[in-house]
Design a protein that fits this description.
Blueprint lengths: L1 E5 L4 H10 L4 E6 L7 E2 L15 E4 L8 H17 L1 H4 L3 E5 L11 H14 L4 E6 L8 H15 L3 E5 L6 E2 L4 H13 L5 E4 L5 E2 H11 L5 E5 L1 H15 L6 H6 L9 H7 L7 H11 L2
Parallel strand pairs: 1-2, 1-4, 2-3, 4-5, 5-6, 6-9, 7-11
Antiparallel strand pairs: 8-10
Helix pairs in contact: 1-6, 2-4, 7-11
Amino acid sequence: MKIIVLGATGQIGSIIYNGLRQRHEVIGTSRNHHSDLTQFDPFQDDWSILGKADILINCVGQIEGKESSFNHVHVELTKHIIENRDVIGAGKIIQISALGASSQHPVAFLRTKGIADDLLQKQPGTVVIRPSIVCTHRTMIVKKMLLLSRIGRSLLGIVPIPTGFLKTKIQPVMPKDLLDLVEKMCHHTTHQIVNAVGPEPITFKEIIKIMTKARNQSLRLVKVPKVATDVIVKSFIGIILPKIINSQQYQLLFEDNIAYVKVAEEILGRPMTSTREFFINEFAYASH
C-alpha cells in the first residue's frame, strides 16, 4: 500500500508519517526541505511529481491566523486535493480535521475545517477524522496551563480566571490511538466521519488540579466576570500578547469539545487510552 501524507512535519502529520512508514510505503511532503521528505507545495507544484498512491492523507492545518489564511490552508487546499485526485491515483482520501468542525461554527479555525470536510464528503471514498487535542509533548494545552502556573508564582499564588472556564470539558486523545485509527481507516471505509477522542472528558479544573499536585504548587483561582475578561482579551492580550492567548483560543475556552468514543473504539477493537497519566507526566517533568 502506497500512501502520501501531506504536512508530514506538523504535530499530527509527523505522528502519522513516522508511524505508518514502519509498515507501509509512505511519501511524506513538506513545503520546506527535509532530508527524508518530498519538498512539495500543493498550491504551486505539479502533483504528478508525487507519483501514484492508493491513499492520500491530508494533515495540513493551521491553528492561528486571519480568516483568509484559514480559508486558504483548509478550504482551498481541499479543493486542490479533489482536483488532483486522479493525477495521483488516490483511491481514498483521509482528511485530518478537528473535533467540533462545522461550517456554521463562529470560530474561523473550526468553520473552515467544517467547510473543507463538507466538500470532501461529497466525494466517494473519503474519510474525515476529527481528533480532539492530541497529547504530544508540550502540546498547546500544557503550555497554557504552565503559563497559569507561572502567573500564579508571580502573583503569590493568585490566578485570575474568567467565570465558566473551569467547567469546560475537553476530551484529548493519545497519539498512538490516533495513529492506529488512521491506519484502520486506510484499510476500511466503515464510516465517513470519525471522532478521535479519549475515553473520558476532563475539565480545565481537573487539569489544573493535576498540574498543581504534580508541581507541588498551591493556586488560588479567583473568578473574574467573563464580561470583564472579554474586554481585556479583545483590547489588550489578544492584540499585544497573542502568545498568551488569541481571540479564537479564548472563545474556545468556554465551549465543551467532547464526543462519543464508542465509534472509535469499535473501529480499533479496543478501548481508547486514558490521557490522565499523560498530564501527570507532562507537569511532573516540567517541575524539574
